[in-house]
Amino acid sequence: MARHIRVPGIVDVVLVSDPAEIRALNDHAKIDRNFIPRGPLINRLIVGRIRRWFEIMGQFLPSLLPRGDHVRAQRQQQLASSLNPANGARLWSDAQLESLAAYVRGGGDDNAAAILTQQIVGRLFDPLYCADAATWKAAQMIDQFRDGFSPVQIGWQLTGKLRRARNLLVGRAKDDRWAMHGTAIGVHGIVHALTRMRQLRASPMAKSSSDDAVLWQCLAPPKQVPRTVEASLETPLVSDPLSAGTVIVLQLAAAGPRAPDAEMVFMRGHWSACPARAFVTELLLAVWRRSLQEPIVA
Amino acid sequence: MRSYLLRAGTFMGASFFEATIAGIYRVINRWRVWHQLPFPLAVINLLALRIDLRWRNLFDTETAPPSTPIPADFDIRRCRTPDGTFNDLSKTWMGMANARFGRNAPLAQTFGEQPPRLYEPNPRVVSRELLARREFVPATSVNLFLAAWLQFMVHDWLSHGVNDTQSPPLRFPVPEGDDWPAREMTILRSCPDHQRGPADAGRPATYRNIVTHWWDGSQMYGSDLKTQHCVRSTPPKILSGDGKIQLADDGNRLLPDGKLYLDATGHLPIDPNASDHDPMQELAAVNGNWWIGLSTMHTLFTREHNAIVDRLQIEYPDKNGEWLFQKARLINAAMIAKIHATEWTPALLQTPTLQYAMRGSWWGALGDAYFRAFGRPAHNELLSGIPSSAAEQYAAPYAITEEFTAVYRLHSLIPDDFSFRRHCDDQGLLACTFQDLLAGGTTKIQHGIPFEDVLYSLGTSFPGAPVLHNYPNHLRRLPENIDLIKTDLAATDIIRDRERGVPRYCAFRRLLRMPAPKTFQELTDNKNWQRELEKIYGDVESVDLLTGTLAETKPPGFAISDTAFRIFIVMAGRRIKSDRFLTDDYTPEVYTPVGIDWVEQNGFREVLLRHAPRLGPILADLRNTFFPWPKLVH
To answer: Per-residue pLDDT tens for B58-105?
Structure first.
């Protein structure tokens, strides 16, 4: 059962880590992504943080838009089509593929592979997108900030490091919210998968793993994603009734080992599905197959 | 408010207390393994391990569980359904026959191996060079009932069913110089899950357990109504006094008094569906892989069922046969669970810590003496044992797991040679090989040798030790089966784990948060085995789970490896803790007061003496009936 942390006036958050419960709550009609300051203190802090750091010119990044947002829905559909290699689009070059395959075989270093991946993702939105060490470092900072609270992160905010990182990425994305999401947030799933793929490639079972086995041993869901309760509701999944403003944290990473599939990693089949699923899985499989063509680097 | 704070501090559903204990011991175990700690700390360590495993190593594989219609005219609240449905009243399909096996490994790590690794190293080479018995290595601290009981239990919990005859079989070459009768070994694939749906796309293969997952005696009572009625009925073919098969009268053959059918000599009847190839096969709900040990267990507990019916009939003369059957089944199954927890497992794992912990799982930390004096004072698993507590499923709905199946591959317990001797003077009656005792061969023994002598012979014989080079050679060359395929069961055991995606030894240990050996020297203290393993595997990461657990240096007093034991810790308790009839409904209201008394007052010794009273002097001073019995020599 989902865990409800509620101290009146202080916090009202539900943590969900079971795949079936995530599925049910994510699709519940009264649960959405409306990040309006309301409810107890910590809820307001969470929403305030999202509003401050994850919007561009007053508009949220796409993964924080409500389900009824027409622009989001339209763009999601359009991207799902344009980012699908099966539709004939050339989404990466052969040289890029070879570089990533070489990394998986044990060559190169983590940063170079990550920067290249960020560039591939950026160019899905802007053919001139240019990733470098600074943009990758900025994306790492945004990723760490997104997933937790810590004194270091407060330091980043106070010293302006976080704002500079964000501004750098927004500038490179040319204010495109989808490009910003891809190069600052989405890219980490691919980079982590490549790192795991490198470990898998070095193991004795590398040549005997099926495509599915490779994908789901390498891909992992994002740590967590937030949702908001829009009207009072009772659900058998949470012991107490929920009220408007309750923040629901879908702990996808915790659910991942129980459901290694596109549903948890990409929210496939749900309104909030990631439109880059086909791109990510095909890129990873292409890298994997290419990496098998040559032996690993000793 | 208190509950909010307690829940807030939890990890994956564990309570604050549980998470704290588990966390503390995770740190301690980085330096010291549980069995190296002083007794009280080791006991708490076992508790911590179980908590940790319950929340982190149980994974559900069901994506679209079936709907289960309520059976008509059946008291689902107070009786076990034949197919295991309605044990859990919220997820009524849980643990039913044909539900999927669960996993102890995160699902992404359970993709089956593909060629070439599937065949590397060659399973036949592993069988021949590492597993084959060179000379019998006995486990001298226990008797052969340990092996018979284990198989009796395994048939209750799990079966993958008939292998796949439709898909191309697994094939690999037999090495030069091998005496196998063909140049290629053929092994049928495991029966695939035919009910996979869209939600399973991209996920690892799943397999279904064709018997109920519960500890419900389904090996005796069946996992469907038809089989249940079959063992409750006079069979169409019966064995007459002269040993010939006759036809029984037609008509309604269901026994009216709730008993299971035994022939006039108190033995199991002949299976009416026995093949012409083996017409003497005995009838039981699960009678595959039949041998004398299994036959004896079935005979003993079928007799026990009937004894329970007799007792209930005295107490409740107005109850009908159906009621008597259902109550006797509940009682018999619970007693079997208790014997396993409090007698069989402590015999297998002979350390003071385990003796206490396993008996504690049934009676709690207060122990059986306290229980006998005061009953179960608290509805608390720790204090009064699991049967006093509420059912709980932890991180996943209850299911037997593939990893559990894998660590229960203990064929090494079976000897190749047997001797049957008289209980009164230990005089030899018959010496034979395992092959003589298979399937219908068992019937000849049961009808030719008095039951007491069969029991005595098993009780005074040693099983094999589960170590390398002790796999029974008869099982490595089984005769052609119904698919006309000769079987090397040792090679099959190796390839099954690979096929079903059970991680290999090192990966398996890591997923249980145990240190994985980096060298063969770290895996085992036996220098010869280190060399042999290295020669076959080359890399310690490639060692199969079965070979690794057989080779592993075991904790003192253990007959099995610490690696296998970790799966035992979580699954042994779970079989009881998940079952409504062994927790919430383990009450006099459901079992009857006589039934609860029967379970609590009886053990394996009492069962043996009830059905073979002449064994009294032999069992008189035995602390545990799974220990070797003394030989009475006059």
So the answer is: 999 998 888 899 888 899 999 999 999 999 999 999 999 999 999 999
In terms of CA atoms, which chain B residue is nearest residue A268?
B199
Count of C-beta atoms within a 10 Å radius of residue B78: 17
Percent of chain B surpassing pLDDT 90: 75
Query: Model-level pTM?
Result: 0.89
- How far is the C-alpha of A207 from the C-alpha of B116, rounded, in Å? 8
What is the CATH number assigned to the segment(s) B62-241+258-619?
Answer: 1.10.640.10
Taking Cα atoms as reference points, which of A93, A143, A148, A85 lies closest to residue A116? A93
Going from N- to C-terminal start, the domains of chain A cover 3-240+247-291
Residues of chain A in contact with residue B118, where contact means CB-CB under 8 angstroms, are 208
Q: How far apart are CA B372 and CA B389, in angstroms?
A: 18
Q: pLDDT tens digits, residue range B43-53?
A: 999 999 999 99
Residue that the structure tokens 């095909």 belong to? A282
- Which residues lie across from B66 on neighbouring strands? none
Query: Which positions in chain A touch B117 (Cβ < 8 Å)?
Result: 204-205, 207-208
Please give chain A's pLDDT, 298 residues, in tens.
788 999 999 999 999 998 889 999 999 999 999 999 999 999 999 999 888 888 888 889 999 999 999 999 999 999 999 999 998 889 999 999 999 999 999 999 999 999 999 999 999 999 999 999 999 999 999 999 987 778 888 899 899 999 999 999 999 999 999 999 999 999 999 999 999 999 999 988 888 888 999 999 999 899 999 999 999 999 888 888 999 999 999 999 988 888 878 888 999 989 999 999 999 999 999 999 999 999 988 7
CA–CA separation, B579 vs A42, rounded Å?
41
Contact A212 B203 (CB under 8 A): yes
Q: Which of A5, A217, A259 sits opposite B8 (nearest CB)?
A: A5
Question: How many residues appear in chain B?
Answer: 634
Query: To probe the interface with B, which of A1, A14, A208 has the most B CB atoms within 10 Å?
Result: A208
Chain A partners within 8 Å of B108 (Cβ)? 213, 216-217, 256-257, 260
B556 in contact with A at a CB cutoff of 8 Å?
Answer: no
Q: B68 CB near a chain A CB, below 8 Å?
A: no
What's the CA gap between B449 and B366, in Å, rounded?
Answer: 44
Q: What is the CATH number of domain A3-240+247-291?
A: 1.10.630.10
- Please check whether residue B542 touches A, CB under 8 A: yes
Residues of A within 8 A of B106 (CB-CB) are 257-258, 260
Domain ranges of chain B: 1-55, 62-241+258-619
